[in-house]
């Protein structure tokens, strides 16, 4: 059984039909990339999975169990972590408090401490800034914090929305390396990216969204080789 | 091209500068006048037999502190709710009234049975507890009935609902308990003064200050140190992301209303301790003043509400005498304004207007524009 599956999901913003029957699956252990132009519905898809939006039709299932009627905070308890677009860290809380909020759904103090150490191994910079107010971090550090915070819930499935946005090229590479190693440690990842090239180098499979519909899907190498994808997203 | 100073000076700027200058002038002129009236001359040390000896100022300061700490306790409720919902709960002053009014019946019963003075601390604690419980309950009912259904409505709608709830509470209490003033019983041990380091302080005021400081410290510790408190701060920054962390936002909102209500209920009893009466309309002015205090400190900011409350209380108590008593207006009031204390509300609301014009973010607040206000 797939870890996550969406079955012909329709989402509306008022009268605007944003997702027109999206069906996709994510298997345990995979990195799946969700590609597409601005406004194609990538972020909307993630927001629907984590319960911030309700599908008008269709189902979202986690290991076969429908989750599309649950409120967001319950979906977190079911094992889905979401690092939203634009980082959206709690700017007035300290780095440590941000990470603790990430673990809000858990009550195993020892496990939380272990996971915080794990986050500090992935992002040593955060450890140096542990007592600092998060709003004073640099863009790259804020992105690390956003990912670290989502990991603190110890999710089975991590939704990452544009982790490379607004970062210097060196940092982009570093973030993708980290995403890969998070996956190797056993977290399944659904990754939304503008940077299709980078996304496909670490992903196992990918879906290409176009105006609310899935235009293409396949293994990462297939998509990388696909003429249309190359022209539209890979710059040649 | 760089425009010259005169070109840049717009009409509004001129008006604003004139406003600042005139307020400053009134303050300086009035204060000088007051000191000259109180002392033999402006530059010598005050004569203790004159009208405003140092201990008068000290009394005013202590009264201001006690008044201000009541404002601060109420202001916390405004500021916490605003921080999370970006909504001004205009019924909050009436939650304060409801707490004080309900606890009045318990205090009166204690007074009749003599328990009030037999164990004053226990009876005060019981009265405070009842006021806090009642106020919390009313705040929670308000949230559930008047605000939660409107969570997704435009921002003006819950505001109107809050004003309606405010009238509802006022006239419900008037209907059930009458429109007259009810005299709060007095605790004998709290009458008179305590002399601390040679300074006489009215006991009621000392009790009010100590109780408020303890409550505020408890609340601040809760918000800064506990997991639920951190979640409250997280929700006030970004409600949606907080829900992605697994925080039950509705629960946090309920807790926020509950804590705000408890603080207001306690403030109600403390207020009644000083003024010794309750009335169905007693929540209106302290409510508006506390709102002013919250704006003064930076709305949404918890330490700001505390500082704003204390500041407003002191300003209101010391201000009229300091600025207005000696304010000689040639031709009308040649020896200063006759009953300056009647003008304390004018001072408070002048401050509100000035803060809104010159520093909308308040003393400690960040710029409102950076929030999604």
Outline of the structure:
The complex is a heterodimer of chains A (236) and B (373). With 236 residues, chain A is α/β, with parallel strands linked by helices.
Query: What is the name of the CATH topology of chain B?
Result: ABC transporter involved in vitamin B12 uptake, BtuC
The span between the termini of chain A is: 37 Å
Write down the Rg of chain B: 23 Å
Number of helical runs of chain A? 10
The helix content of chain B is: 55-70%
Content of β-strand of chain B: under 5%
Largest sheet of chain B: 2 strands, antiparallel
Q: What order do the helices and strands of chain B follow?
A: HHHHHHHEEEHHHHEHHH
CATH level 4 superfamily of chain A: P-loop containing nucleotide triphosphate hydrolases
What is the end-to-end distance of chain B? 35 Å
Question: What report would you give on this structure?
Answer:
The complex is a heterodimer of chains A (236) and B (373). With 236 residues, chain A is α/β, with parallel strands linked by helices. The termini of chain A are far apart. Chain A has a single domain (4-86, 143-233), classed as P-loop containing nucleotide triphosphate hydrolases (Rossmann fold), CATH 3.40.50. Chain A has helices spanning 42-49, 72-78, 95-102, 109-122, 124-128, 139-151, 169-184, 196-202, 220-225, 227-233; strands at residues 4-13, 16-26, 31-36, 57-62, 65-66, 80-83, 157-161, 188-192, 205-210, 213-219. The radius of gyration of chain A is 17 Å and the shape is globular. In chain A, helix 3 (95-102) runs parallel beside helix 6 (139-151). Chain A is 39% helix and 26% strand. A six-stranded mixed sheet of chain A has the order 6-7-8-3-9-10, with helices on both faces. Chain A has a four-stranded antiparallel sheet with strand order 2-1-4-5, covered by helices on one side. Chain B has 373 residues and is mainly alpha-helical. Chain B has a single domain (11-370), classed as ABC transporter involved in vitamin B12 uptake, BtuC. Helices cover 70% and strands 3% of the residues of chain B. Chain B is built from 14 helices and four strands. Chain B has helices at residues 5-8, 11-38, 54-85, 92-113, 115-118, 120-147, 156-177, 203-225, 227-237, 239-244, 249-275, 284-297, 302-325, 344-358, and strands spanning 182-183, 193-196, 199-202, 277-278. In chain B, the strands form two sheets. In chain B, strands 1-4 form a two-stranded antiparallel sheet. Chain B has a two-stranded antiparallel sheet with strand order 2-3. In chain B, strand 2 and strand 3 form a beta hairpin. Chain A binds chain B through residues 50-52, 71-73, 76-77, 81-82, 84, 88, 90-93, 97, 100-102, 104-105, 149, 153, and chain B through 227, 230-231, 233-234, 237-238, 240-249.
């Amino acid at each position: 059984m797939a870890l996550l599956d969406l079955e012909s999901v329709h989402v509306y913003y008022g009268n605007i039909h944003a997702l027109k029957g999206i069906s996709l699956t994510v298997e345990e252990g995979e990195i799946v990339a969700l590609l597409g132009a601005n406004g194609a519905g990538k972020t909307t898809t993630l927001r629907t999975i984590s319960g911030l939006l309700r599908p008008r039709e269709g189902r979202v299932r986690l290991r076969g169990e429908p989750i599309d009627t649950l409120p967001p905070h319950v979906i977190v308890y079911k094992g889905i972590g979401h690092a939203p677009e634009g980082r959206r860290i709690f700017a007035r809380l300290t780095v440590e408090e941000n990470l603790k909020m990430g673990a809000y759904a858990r009550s195993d103090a020892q496990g939380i401490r272990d996971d915080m150490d794990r986050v500090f191994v992935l992002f040593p910079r955060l450890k140096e800034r542990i007592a600092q107010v998060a709003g004073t971090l640099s863009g790259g550090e804020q992105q690390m914090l956003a990912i670290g915070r989502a990991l603190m819930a110890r999710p089975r499935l991590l939704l990452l929305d544009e982790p490379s946005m607004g970062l210097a090229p060196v940092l982009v590479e570093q973030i993708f390396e980290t995403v890969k190693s998070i996956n190797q440690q056993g977290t399944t990842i659904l990754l939304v990216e503008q940077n299709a090239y980078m996304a496909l180098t670490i992903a196992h499979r990918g879906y290409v969204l176009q105006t609310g519909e899935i235009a293409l899907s396949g293994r990462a190498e297939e998509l990388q080789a696909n003429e249309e994808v190359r022209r539209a997203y890979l710059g040649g | 091209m760089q425009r010259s100073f005169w070109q840049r000076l717009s009409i509004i700027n001129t008006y604003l500068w004139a406003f600042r200058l005139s307020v400053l002038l009134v303050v300086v002129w009035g204060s000088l006048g007051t000191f000259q009236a109180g002392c033999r001359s402006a530059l010598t040390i005050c004569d203790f037999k004159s009208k405003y000896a140092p201990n008068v100022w000290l009394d005013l300061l202590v009264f201001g502190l006690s008044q201000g700490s009541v404002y601060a306790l109420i202001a916390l409720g405004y500021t916490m709710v605003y921080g999370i919902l970006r909504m001004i709960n205009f019924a909050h002053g009436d939650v304060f009234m409801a707490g004080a009014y309900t606890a009045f019946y318990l205090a009166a019963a204690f007074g009749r049975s003599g328990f009030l003075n037999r164990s004053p601390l226990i009876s005060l604690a019981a009265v405070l507890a009842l006021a806090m419980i009642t106020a919390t309950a009313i705040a929670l009912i308000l949230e559930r009935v008047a605000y939660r259904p409107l969570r997704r409505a435009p921002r003006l709608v819950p505001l109107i609902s809050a004003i309606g709830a405010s009238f509802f509470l006022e006239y419900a209490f008037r209907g059930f308990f009458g429109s007259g003033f009810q005299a709060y019983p007095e605790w004998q041990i709290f009458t008179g003064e305590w002399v601390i380091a040679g300074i006489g302080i009215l006991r009621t005021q000392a009790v009010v200050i100590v109780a408020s400081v303890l409550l505020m410290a408890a609340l601040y510790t809760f918000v800064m140190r506990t997991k639920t408190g951190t979640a409250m701060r997280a929700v006030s920054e970004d409600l949606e992301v907080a829900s992605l962390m697994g925080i039950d936002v509705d629960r946090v909102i309920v807790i926020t209303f509950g804590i705000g209500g408890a603080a207001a209920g306690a403030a109600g009893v403390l207020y009644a301790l000083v003024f010794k009466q309750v009335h169905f309309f007693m929540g209106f002015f302290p409510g508006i003043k506390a709102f002013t205090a919250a704006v003064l400190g930076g709305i949404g900011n918890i330490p700001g509400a505390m500082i704003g409350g204390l500041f407003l209380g002191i300003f209101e108590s010391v201000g009229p005498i300091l600025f207005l008593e000696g304010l000689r207006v040639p031709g009308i009031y040649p020896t200063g304004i006759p009953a300056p204390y009647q003008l304390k509300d004018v001072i408070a609301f002048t401050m509100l207007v000035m803060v809104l014009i010159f520093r909308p973010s308040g003393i400690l607040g960040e710029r409102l524009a950076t929030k999604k206000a």
